[in-house]
Amino acid sequence: MIFNFSSSKTLVALAVASSVMLAGCSATANTSSTQQSALPASKVAAVVNTPADIGSQKITLEQAMADPDWMGNQPENAYWASDSATIIYAQKEQGNTLRNLFSQSVTSQTAEQVALNKLHTVGSNKAVYSKNKTMAAYTFKGNVFVENLKTGELKQITATSANESKPQFLNNGDLVYRQGNVFFKVDLKTGLTSELANLKLTDEPKGIEEPSTYIAKEQHKLIKFVALQQKNKKDQQARNEQINEQNDSIANTAYYLGDGNKVAEAQLSPNGDALLVVVQKQTDWRGDGDIMPNYITNDATIEPKKARRRVADAKEETSKLVYINLTNKEQTSLSFNTLPGFDEDVLAAVKKENYARDGKTYKSKRAPRGINLIMDWGFEQSPIVWNDDGSQVAIMLEAWDNKDRWLATVDFKNNKLVSQHRLHDDAWIAYAFNDFGWLHNSNTLYYLSEESGYSQLYKKPVNGSAAALTQGQFEVSNLTLTSDNSAIYYKANVEHPGLYEIYRVNPQTGKSEQVTDLNGMTDYTLSPDETKLLLKHSTITMPNELYVADAQANAKATRLTHTVSDEFLAKKLTAPKIVAVPSSHTEQPIYAKVYYPADYVEGEVGKNRKAVIFNHGAGYLQNSHMGFSVYFREFMFHSLLADEGYIVMDMDYRASKGYGRDWRTAIYRQMGTPETQDLADGVKWMAQNANVDTKAVGTYGGSYGGFMTFMALFTAPELFQSGAALRPVTDWAHYNTGYTANILNHPDVDPIAYERSSPIYYAEGLNKRLLINAPMVDDNVFFQDSVRLVQRLIELEKQNFETAIFPVEPHGFVQPSSWLDEYRRIYKLFKETL
Asked: Which parts of the sequence belong to the Dipeptidylpeptidase IV N-terminal domain (predicted)?
């Protein structure tokens, strides 16, 4: 099924039968009741509008791979000023890497550059506001500033060489900020700064110790001078303790968290009377042998750059929760043993399979699991959140084995955690969709959960049952609660998996309503006064620009910026069509972009088209959406190929983002297998629907896409005639822990999954042309990955591969000359083999 979106044609109504949607998933949770959302639960597609092809000047490879300045420099890191009438954003200078800051009124089409000596005056995207919304606080270059929103007065609170951070207004109007692990409070009326808490990563001092050995005790008996010195020390210690207890002018705020530890997170209550602290053992992020040689240096030497640890070397970690009562100076450790499943052997079946392969028998037993703060790569919040009056605190935790996520509160009376929500997944908990918080002036939580198979929004009173605020086969993210609890704004792909708009739901009634209708990829920021939305919006053929809209249903958006260059607009670029490729392995189709040549006619006969499939990187990334892709160079390269008669396809293979939990976890313990099956379905679809000769199809991709190129050429060698693997993973045991351990568990537990999923074990299957493009200072996928595979191919006596190295490039190429060299090689490979 092709979804042909074009601004030059009438809108095309998309219809996808409900039978092609995902089946239920194995994720479980304790949600027990639901509320019906106003949005249709099974709505998959609707009327949308995306651009047609643009420009008339043929794009060249040299232009496509040039420094992207020629395309225009889009607004970056946009945020609201405190007046809710001005936006601030950065913009890259032409010809260098410097950024300038601009200020623009929402009623103007022009922006003014912020002078360097005024950069501290325009707020921050991390500004915080007082409870009555009369004051704003933020940091600039490590110093704290406070703005009076009524008078406009800006006051600098600190001017130090230290790095002050994380300003916070207390309920009484005082300001708190951090300097490392020390919390300071400022009385904004008097200007007095006082120390609230000093978190010391040492053991508590033992004080004056009494003699313990025989000879020491005798020394104190026999020598009066020694005994007197001991008495004087004890007297002085006692006096110091009396002064600290009886004299309020002295800061007595030290809390000892243990030698060899680090503070992973600490959040102060809004009343300033309590802290919840997460403590971990201080461990190095690398081993002595984790280095990466850099051969091109300023002084012509070889620099041994430090590199991260590999997942194969990772050791289980667990955290310690410490509750500190700042009023009575008591600190208490909170155990994880009240969390359901804290000691379950959730990997018993996996361990049994691996033991059996080695001829051993695994006996399951319960044991405390490593538990830490949730790791969400998109988090803009803390995983610890207090409610408004400081009577409750919530913390989101995740098991080291990646199978459980807990949202817990603290029973302060009994000093224990109370589980409010457990999300278990037999595969892994997503490192997205973990937003949560408290409804204002209440003890009711709201949070995202994939328990239905899709990320949806729920609410739960601390002592009540959970209720769904949204329902459907779409993904909810990016939550913002209004100050009066009337709405939670969110981003979702309700109408189509690749179409993202802004919605809002009333948390009391569960009624949702659509806010924007821009057709593409849209993100938002609610203004401080909550009357407007700052929108970042792009389409398939146009990069991000800024818009503003009223914060209401069916809002009309006004465009604020016009930064795309005339040169880019003039280039002939092909707008891909959105295709739903039937899957041979799932009920849900595989969404893909297809670039058609200008002379292509639907249903044409007598032509045998050649084709290329591009494999996006990151694994959990969505590329077949209706916004401007992060792969903008590839977009232009694919337009160039289409202009030369190729059919080009970008597939959102299984594991891609945007399609629900089951799609995400299809690769659990078998990376590369479902994706290659999906590529085969893509080739089949092109043969049946685009006149493609199956003996003239190539594939390429970078990072995860490079890994997929290997797996396709090694395990399904008849599928493609050639492939190019860029910055590719060849052995998952050498990749990082945060990403890999989710999908494949840890190598010491599940070596079967690593061997099943790593291309280096399948290299003997290569019988088609292969290009390996490897950057040498890649601190993400190490150059060693390519080196080890090349040696394996040599030992297998393979003759149809070649390797190109890029000495100065990291994982994401920087130099235009490197981009051009890389894509010239890819272009040449396809020209020679297809």
From this structure: 384-543
| Other Cβ atoms within 10 Å of 493 Cβ, number | 25
Contact residues for 209 (Cβ-Cβ < 8 A; gap 6+)? none
pLDDT of residue 51: 64
Q: Which is it for strands 2-3 and 577-581: parallel, antiparallel or unpaired?
A: antiparallel
Q: Are 79 and 533 in contact, with CB atoms under 8 Å apart?
A: no
Contact 531, 551 (CB under 8 A): yes
d(CA 515, CA 522): 11
Which pLDDT belongs to residue 31? 40
CA dist 358 and 47 (Å) reads 56
Contact indicator for 576, 650 with CB cutoff of 8 Å: yes
Determine the Cα–Cα distance for residues 301 and 299; give it in Å rounded to an integer.
6
Beta strands in 24-95 (DSSP E): 33-34, 57-58, 76-80, 86-92
228-234: Cβ within 8 A, 24+ apart: 233/208, 234/208
Low-confidence ranges of the chain (pLDDT < 70): 1-51
Collect contacts of 116-125 with beta carbons under 8 A, ≥24 apart.
120/145, 120/156, 121/154, 122/81, 122/88, 123/79, 123/80, 123/81, 123/82, 123/88, 123/147, 124/79, 125/77, 125/78, 125/79, 125/525
**Cβ count within 10 A of residue 283:** 12
Q: How far apart are CA 748 and CA 754, in angstroms?
A: 10
Instruction: Write the single-letter amino acid at 281.
Output: K
Bridge partners (DSSP) of residue 45 are: none
Q: Can you read off the two tokens belonging to residue 192?
A: 């007095």
DSSP codes joined into one string, 705-721? HHHHHHHHHHHSTTS-S
Whole-number CA gyration radius for the chain: 30
CA distances to 66, 186, 292, 314 from 144, in Å:
41, 11, 38, 38
Residues in the chain: 834
Instruction: Please write the tens of the pLDDT for every residue from 748-798.
Output: 999 999 999 999 999 999 999 999 999 999 999 999 999 999 999 999 999
Maximum pairwise Cα distance, the chain: 112
Please report the pLDDT score of residue 238 as a whole number.
85
Distance CA 61, CA 566 (A): 19
Burial 755-784 (b: 16+ CB within 10 A, else e): bbbbbbbbbebbebbbbbbbbbbbebbbbb
Do residues 264 and 279 lie in contact, with contact meaning Cβ atoms separated by under 8 Å? yes
pLDDT at 91: 98
pTM of the model: 0.92
Rounded to whole angstroms, how far apart are CA atoms 111 and 192?
A: 39
DSSP string covering 336-354? STTSTTTT--TTHHHHHHH
Place of tokens 């006082």: 194
Quick one: how far is CA 393 from the chain centroid?
24
8 A C-beta contact, residue 145 and residue 157:
yes
Looking at residue 830, its pLDDT comes to 98
Contact between 260 and 282 under an 8 Å Cβ cutoff? The reply is yes
Residue 178 pairs in a beta bridge with: 165, 183
- Cα 182 to Cα 161: distance, rounded to the nearest angstrom: 15
Amino acid at 738: G
Please report, for residues 260, 401, 669, 779, 810, the alpha-carbon distance to residue 745 in angstroms, rounded to integers and kept in the order given: 28, 7, 8, 22, 27
Closest residue by Cα to residue 712 from 630, 631, 770, 754: 770
Q: What angle do CA 345, 422, 437 make, to 5 degrees?
A: 145
Element (H or E) spanning 24, and its range? none
Closest CA to 211 of 195, 230, 224: 230
* Dihedral over alpha carbons 792, 796, 798, 802 (to 10 degrees): 10
Give the pLDDT of residue 237: 86
